[in-house]
Amino acid sequence: MKLLRRIGVKILVLMGRAVDIWSTSPYPANVLSNLYPNAFEIDGIRCASMEGFLQSLKIEDPELQKEICALSGKEAKERSTSDWQAIQIIYWQGKHILRQSPEFQALLRKAYQCLFEQNETFRTALLSIKGKRLYHTRGLSNLRKTILTEQEFCTMLNELIPIL
Q: Do the Cβ atoms of 65 and 79 come closer than 8 Å?
């Protein structure tokens, strides 16, 4: 089923009706990937990429969190841990947040809003896909297994597009 979906999305991409976001895709999909070095700041913490921010949420120690936020996408991904999955709690600046809570969704929206407002490269790439369907076929869909599902990711980006 996943293979058929990927083929369908690939056809939509080739027709110019969709974008499948992942780091090795051609522009603008690569720039919209969380692994791309789109720097931004949230709550006074400098993030070298959205991946750095997302991976930092899995770490309880605020100082280590800052270190991970400062990493580029692939470096941050290499520091990933699955420890949070058992308890479904993420962390931000010393605060415990349930993974499946409205508070977590609000934090994600805030991070993407910061990225959008502060990073012209990201904003320009997002503008260039206006009117196209967004996919992240490499992403997972199980909330309990990933810090950001495909649906959450695409929703965050789609919510920013009308601003443009």
A: no
Three-class SS of residue 162?
helix
Please identify which residue in the block is written with the tokens 């070095």.
37
**H or E element: which one contains 109?**
helix 102-118
pLDDT tens for the chain, 164 residues: list them.
788 999 999 999 999 999 999 999 999 999 999 999 999 999 999 999 999 999 999 999 999 999 999 999 999 999 999 999 999 999 999 999 999 999 999 999 999 999 999 999 999 999 999 999 999 999 989 999 999 999 999 999 999 987 65
Give the global pTM: 0.94
The residue type found at 15 is: M
The two tokens of residue 164 are 């443009």
Letter string b/e over residues 103-130, b meaning 16 or more CB atoms within 10 A of that residue's CB: ebeebbeebbbbbbeebeebbebbeebe
CA distances from 112 to 2, 9, 116 (A): 27, 24, 6
Cα 116 to Cα 118: distance, rounded to the nearest angstrom: 6
How is residue 5 written in tokens?
């979906």
